[in-house]
Structure prediction request, 766 residues.
Amino acid sequence: MEARAGIEPANRGFAVPGLTTWLPRRAPKPLLSIDFTPLEQAKTYFESFYIMKLQILFYLFLFIPISIFGQSRPNVIIVMADDMGWSDIGCYGSEIETPNLDRLASNGLRFTQFYNTGRCCPTRASLLTGTYPHQAGIGHMMNDTGLPGYKGDLGSNVQTIAEVLSPAKYSTYISGKWHVTPKIQPGSSQHNWPRQRGFDRFYGTIHGAGSFFDPNSLTRDNTLISPHADKEYKPEVFYYTDAINDHATRFINEHNSKNPFFLYVAHTAPHWPMHALPEDIKKYKGRYDAGWEKIRKKRYQKQLDLGLIDPKWKLSPRDAEAWNDAKNKEWEIRHMEVYAAMVDRLDQGLGRIINALKDRKMFDNTLIIFIADNGGCAEGMGRKEGIQYKDSNPETLKPMKATDLQMDMIPRRTREGVVMKQGTEVMTGGADTYHGYGKAWANVSNTPFREYKHWVHEGGISAPLVTHWPKGIAPKLRGKFEHQPAHLIDLMATCVDLAKADFPEEKNGEKIVPMQGVSLKPAFSGKTFKRPNPIFWEHEGNRAIRIGKWKLVAKGANGNWELYDLAADRSELNDLSEKHPDRTTEMASKWEAWAIEANAKPWPWNRNKKNQGSKKKAFTLNTGTSLTKELSPMISKKPFEVEVHIEQQGEGVLVAQGGDTHGWVFLIKDNIAHFTLSLGGKIETIQANEKLTKKDNKILAKLNPDGKVELFAGKRKLGSGQVSSLVKEMPIDGLQVGRDEGGTVGGYKDAFAFDGKIKKVRIKIN
Ligand SMILES: [Ca+2]
Ligand SMILES: [Ca+2]
Prediction:
């Protein structure tokens, strides 16, 4: 409430040690200091009058050229929500209260056809670099498939907006989620962390999701921190959305350069888990009792009333069970109440950002952009019947020390030591719960479109785009809609245009992928922007291309192309591919050409059987070995054994193949050998009953045809146990000796590199 009234202190939550450090710095420093002393010694009034005039002229002379370059260029703020559907904010049809966004919309310009890529990592890669995600090496998530478009780590052949704007004398700040590198663990390479990729200041998480009360991989600049032992930021209750907004506000308050700034505010709300503050949840109590069908219809009607959608666009059919048939109604309602509270809280903090801009008289010349990274998410999380504990032995869980780093995406316990719970018998919202809101509410989020996050039908890739810039958007356009299609790739081009920056052709001798988008600036004065190329999508084999009003779209690597006239049918209900075979063929061939040029192909999906791994039955590998999938042992549904010759004992991964869906890892922790399998995402571990001794220089793990795992040191048996199956599919990730790169198999984040010495690894496929 206070935030709305704008009376919260500007340094909310921040420690105030030496006063000047954290208090907003509002008085700009003088541009130049000039010594006029000899002149000022002149005695008569007449003389000093002239001197004064001279001084004014002198200052004006100095100031004018600076103002042309330094003062007129706008600040740019990009605020991004995570896993939020097209209709989830008030000015796009929602009942969720977002007064700050609605005000920006009614004084700014709303785009009705703005697109993202359909998922977190690729969207961030595309936004940051102005390229398609595959060109930046992040066609998918953070796993390295050995393919150029799917390296899972931001490439050195692309530049971030911060890297491009810094030489143009912009200060560059980021508050929030990064998610374009898998290197998270303390001590791992930080070459792709924000500070190394152009940003002057960073507060946020390197990883993509986590608890809002205790997020994993929380970092300030280059240091991993615990939110509960942070000397700089001590709110009464730590809540990540607030922390992101408070740090964004802080960066604005502490910006003390004559130059403008670029600020990227990357929220994790309302991505799962459904975590919100009690006062915000309370506000939405009862608002969703009517169930998903009615809310969806209401949103559709509001979109019509707002003039956001064309009446020709039908509401797509409900894609969930009927509300009447819903089994756990109260539990489902609670999810949407919490989700709404998360979006509401994001908007409240945006109010503080706006107030800081106003306080510093920066509001008029700041372009604020609000978007979402993908559509509402139908991927379930924690939605099984009953109650499931994240730790099999909750009684033994101890509170975490305030200084402990939280490195788990799903913490096993809260800081207080309360075990994390999931399932239908657990009401969501608190720090000890971890749920997603499910497909039916995601269907509401994406009103009126079809599909969700992951798909490249309109529900997966459509985002609101609210733009606000009093000095830059023509008054006649305020509160209006812009219907030209636009995409994330355009944000770099827009920033370069507004900052009058140079986009580099090469850096450190490496060719930089050119910007793929167009500046959106012409839209701010009601002009069309000329887009020379179609807009393209590829995500997990789902494909699309848009040219004018036509969109060709397909599901999965083998799905048929569907053709839609989006001017008449944005909900994609009437497939015209059979009616327009020539257009379909032409657009499909354009997509194929783009896919190859932009590294979307070769892709890791549905690769033919020939590429399922090496047929070799025996492997001898040295320390440091890294094999692509094609060269890795073909272990799908196969028993095998791994023998590791150790030169010097240590802790970490001895050898790993695969990632968090399919794979295996042989590792040592606390001197105990562990063999872990990822069986379709289910982690199963067999560990030794006894510790290794210094003399144990040869250890062996054997996976038998029946799923029995045996562990040996030399001839001595260390332990055995049963896993539920062999590895189900050939993992996409390759194999490494001494670490687990890309997606990780289990129990640890990042590579968990072995800190001893490995001499040799032998793998035998049985
Ligand atoms: Ca997302
Ligand atoms: Ca891996």
